[in-house]
Amino acid sequence: MNTTPFSTRHVTSTTTSDRDQPWIDVTVRAPAVGERALVLGGGGGTGNAWVIGVIAGLFEAGLDVTGADLVIGTSSGSTAAAQVTSATPTELFAAALAAAPQPPARTVAPDAGRGPTASATNHMERTSRIIGAADDPAEMRRRLGAAALEIAAASDGSVQTRWRATVAARLPSGQWPERRLLITAVDAQTGAPVVFDRDSRVDLVDAVAASCSSGPAYGIGDRRFIDGGYRRSSENADLAAGYARVLVLSPLGGRSRAPLDWGMHLAAQVDELRAGGSRVETVLPDGNAEHLFGANAMNPSLRTPAARAGHDQGSALAQRLTEFWR
Length: 326
Hints:
Elements (H helix, E strand, L loop, with lengths): L15 H4 L14 E7 L3 H17 L9 E4 L2 H9 L4 H10 L21 H14 L3 H17 L3 H14 L9 E8 L5 E4 L7 H8 L6 E3 L2 E5 L15 E7 L16 H10 L3 E5 L19 H23 L1
Parallel strand pairs: 1-2, 1-7, 2-3, 7-8
Antiparallel strand pairs: 3-4, 3-6, 5-6
Helix pairs in contact: 2-3, 2-4, 2-10, 3-8, 4-10, 5-6, 7-8
C-alpha cells in the first residue's frame, strides 16, 4: 500500500500551506447532517475488546449499530471502527475470544491498540506531566507532539514499519469502507487537530496507525501524527454534530486527564450535541469491568475478559438502545 499522501486534493482552509494537506481541516469543515452516528472511544487493547464485545452483544440481541450513517474512531476506537465497518460483530467477537492471552511486556503489545512505548506506566506518567504543564488544549497538543517527535527521532525506521504491519494485521480490510468513517489524530508538528476520511488520500492502515500512536510520532509522507485522543478527548463525539441520534461507547468512562474547564471530557461534548438537537446515549463500562481499563488497558491478557464484559453489557442494553436507535 502507498503510504505517501497525495498533495493534489485541496481542502478548504485559511492558509496556503494548509490547502496542500490531504486531511480534513475540521476547524472550517461544515458539519454533516445525518440520522445515526456511532462513536467509538479509545482505551487501549482492553478498550478495543470491550467495544467489540458491546457491539457484538447488541448485534446478537437483534440490534446492528454498525450500519450507522457515520462512524467515528479514536485511538484504539479507530481500530474498532475500521473493524466493524468491514467484518461482522460476531466474527470480531469470536476473534477477540480466540486470541491467545500474552503476558504483559515492557513494550506495548500489538493488541494494545497503540504504538510501542518503553512501558505503558512510563508513558502515562510522561504524558501526564506534559498535560499538567500546559495552559490550554492547543499548548498541550503542541507539547505532546514535540515529545513524540523526539521519541521518533531517537528510533530507527523499523519501529514505524513494525507498527504499521501490526495495525494492518488487525484490520479485516485495508480499504476505506463506502460508509462515512472518520479517524482522528493530531499533527505532531503543529498540534493541529486532524481527521482522516476516505477522501483524505491516506491509506486506512496509516490513518489508524496514526490515531493509535501514543509513543513515537507516526509518519505519513513528510508529516508526523500522534494519538487522536489528544484532539479533544478519547471519544471526539463532537464530530457527530448534526446527527439525530448519537451512540457513544467510551471504554475510559468519559474521563479526561485534562482540566475540566478545558471542556475535553465526554459530558461536555454530550451537552453540546444535545444543545444542537441530537439525542445521545453513552455506554460506559459497568462497575464490574472498570478494573480492566486505565492502568490495565495495555495488558493483552485482559482482552478476553474485557470482550466478555462488553458483550454482557451489550446484551443487557439491547432493548433500551433498540428503542433509541430505531
